[in-house]
Amino acid sequence: FMVLWVGLIMALWFAPALVLFHDVAPLEAMQLSVEACIRNVLPFSLMAVILYVLIWLAMLPAGLGMLVLVPVMAGTVHASYRDVFGDLPALPEKPATEG
User: What one-character DSSP code corresponds to residue 1?
Assistant: First the structure.
């Protein structure tokens, strides 16, 4: 179960950002996310251990710590995405419509 769970987390770690910012197809984004996590296995593992501990600590005050931890986790995911895939690309120009 743990192997499947880690594989799923790796597939979903960067996939939403790749779909949103790079206009990549969802399945390809999941594959790129897994490849990026494998290339960065040490930082990915360290982050997983730190998040595991922080989640336990956030759950102690009746789960209210999650109100702080969830936005912090979103920021760490975005920071790790920018670190692995570079800065955000410029938005593509939309073609001019006629009429």
Answer: -
